[in-house]
């Protein structure tokens, strides 16, 4: 088994402290990204149970060899190989002297919940949101290094693809080349479906690459990232084929200002809502408030969209040192064009650290 890093100890301690505050005796972790952060399990079937003085992990026999080298060797961790997780919990008395059991209510399926309540009718199951997730916001040096590599691949691929952009090429051809170039550089997979949208389709916030042919005058928005050894990147760039119009220049200038000022303000101790409002105010003052259709950003790591959400609606969450977030202001004018600029940044006590490094210019190609 793997040596337990300090970051994993910190995360387990944080969850246990939250359990104590909430008067919860045990916590069921069924969300696979959460399990990887806590115990380093990268498989697709398992459950992790946290108690004040014990840790339990169950998976099936497909992962017997994997967990023997992969999982962290916590001194209070007991591991079980079985297909019936609930039966293991019963036979081994996981919940002896337990009254309240927390579960990730925004991650657990209804079927899973019903199975637990049916088999443990004397226990009170308490829905809990973001207790485990919040404990994983801060990333270790090793995790940040993997995210930096993921972001570097993404940045390099963008520069590789730029010379391909010309009238007659399809969005799909550009997306295919992006995918190939990322994997060629060591990416395991795309972080999400690659977005390449051009012309009026660039106003589609989450449009996907289609067979549309690139034309002279098209604005093109690229939004893509890669998964490198389990950790993701997420970057957006916007270009125009030919000369940009005055309106296009004004829109890009607005999102660039919103981007610059919100990135500069992003530091530990700032509320997520405050960061969003910096960018939102700039865009609104320029007359485009109704056309900024999404939050300013989101947490990033093993999942592409993690908490904290960088949104004006998120008045509770405060950024912590070494968490990674995206900053991605955008303006989308229906039946005209849309633009977005996005980078991945590491939060520090002072200046944020940029992971994505591709030029942020509005290229006229």
List the helices and strands and how they pair.
Layout: H1 6-21, E1 26-29, H2 32-39, E2 46-51, E3 54-59, H3 64-70, E4 77-81, H4 85-91, E5 100-104, H5 110-119, E6 124-128, H6 131-135, H7 141-161, H8 171-184, E7 189-190, E8 195-198, E9 219-224, E10 226-228, E11 231-232, E12 235-240, H9 246-265, H10 272-285, E13 297-299, E14 306-310, E15 324-327, E16 330-333, E17 337-340, E18 343-346, E19 353-354
Parallel strand pairs: 1-5, 3-4, 5-6
Antiparallel strand pairs: 1-2, 2-3, 7-10, 8-9, 9-12, 10-11, 13-14, 15-18, 16-17, 18-19
Task: Give a concise summary.
The chain is α+β, with helices and mostly antiparallel strands.
Describe the structure.
With 365 residues, this protein is of the alpha+beta class. It has two domains: 6-135, Creatine Amidinohydrolase, Chain A, domain 1 (3-Layer(aba) Sandwich), CATH 3.40.350; 141-354, Alpha-Beta Complex (Creatine Amidinohydrolase). 33% of the residues lie in helices and 22% in strands. It contains ten helices and 19 strands. A six-stranded mixed beta sheet has the order 4-3-2-1-5-6. Strands 7-10-11 form a three-stranded antiparallel beta sheet. Strand 18 (343-346) and strand 19 form a beta hairpin. Helix 7 crosses helix 8 (171-184) and helix 9 (246-265) packs antiparallel against helix 10 (272-285). The radius of gyration is 23 Å and the shape is elongated.
């Amino acid at each position: 088994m793997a040596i337990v890093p300090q970051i994993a100890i910190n995360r387990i301690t944080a969850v246990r402290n939250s359990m104590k505050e909430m008067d919860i005796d045990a916590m069921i972790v069924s969300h696979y990204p959460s399990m990887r952060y806590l115990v380093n399990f990268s498989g697709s079937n398992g459950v992790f149970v946290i108690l004040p003085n014990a840790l339990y992990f169950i998976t099936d026999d497909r992962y017997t060899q994997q967990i023997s080298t992969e999982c962290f060797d916590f001194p209070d961790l007991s591991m079980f190989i079985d297909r019936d997780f609930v039966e293991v919990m019963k036979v081994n008395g996981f919940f002896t002297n337990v009254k309240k059991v927390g579960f990730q209510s925004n991650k657990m399926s209804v079927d899973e919940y019903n199975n637990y309540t049916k088999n443990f009718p004397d226990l009170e199951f308490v829905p809990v949101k973001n207790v485990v997730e919040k404990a994983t916001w801060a990333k270790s040096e090793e995790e940040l290094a993997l995210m930096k590599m993921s972001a570097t691949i993404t940045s390099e691929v963008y520069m590789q693809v730029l010379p391909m952009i010309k009238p007659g090429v399809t969005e799909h051809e550009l997306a295919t080349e992006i995918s190939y170039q990322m994997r060629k550089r060591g990416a395991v997979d795309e972080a999400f479906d690659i977005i390449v949208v051009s012309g009026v389709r660039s106003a589609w916030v989450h449009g996907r690459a289609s067979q549309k042919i690139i034309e002279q005058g098209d604005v093109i928005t690229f939004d893509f990232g890669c998964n490198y050894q389990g950790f993701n990147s997420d970057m957006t760039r916007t270009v125009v084929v030919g000369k940009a119009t005055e309106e296009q220049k004004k829109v890009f200038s607005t999102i660039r200002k919103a981007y610059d000022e919100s990135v500069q303000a992003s530091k530990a101790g700032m509320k997520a809502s405050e960061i969003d409002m910096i960018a939102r105010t700039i865009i609104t003052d320029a007359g485009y408030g109704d056309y900024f259709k999404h939050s300013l950003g989101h947490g990033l790591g093993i999942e592409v969209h993690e908490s904290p959400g960088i949104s004006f609606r998120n008045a509770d969450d405060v950024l912590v040192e070494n968490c990674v977030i995206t900053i991605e202001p955008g303006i989308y004018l229906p039946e005209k064009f849309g633009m977005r600029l996005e980078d991945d940044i590491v939060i520090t006590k002072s200046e944020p650290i940029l992971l994505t490094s591709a030029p942020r210019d509005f290229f006229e190609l």
